[in-house]
Amino acid sequence: MEALFQQGRAYMDGVGVTQDISKGLGLIEQAAEQGYGDAQYFLGLYNFKHLQDIPTAVGWFQKAAQQGHESARIVLEEAGLS
Length: 82
Description:
mainly alpha, 5 helices, Serine Threonine Protein Phosphatase 5, Tetratricopeptide repeat
């Protein structure tokens, strides 16, 4: 899961590979769907900041918080969603 997430980040940032946002997001989503909290948190941030898709962002933050991701828990708490 972490390897998928790191590979996805590399594609998102164009580090060591040609930048490909779509491919990067796909790899990160695979890691998130397998329960990797960092990937779930990343998708929460991405959906919130870049897509302005609040319901999807909250869903990913909730999944990450369930995995014990502290930053996701804090985001939900500060938004009054915990």
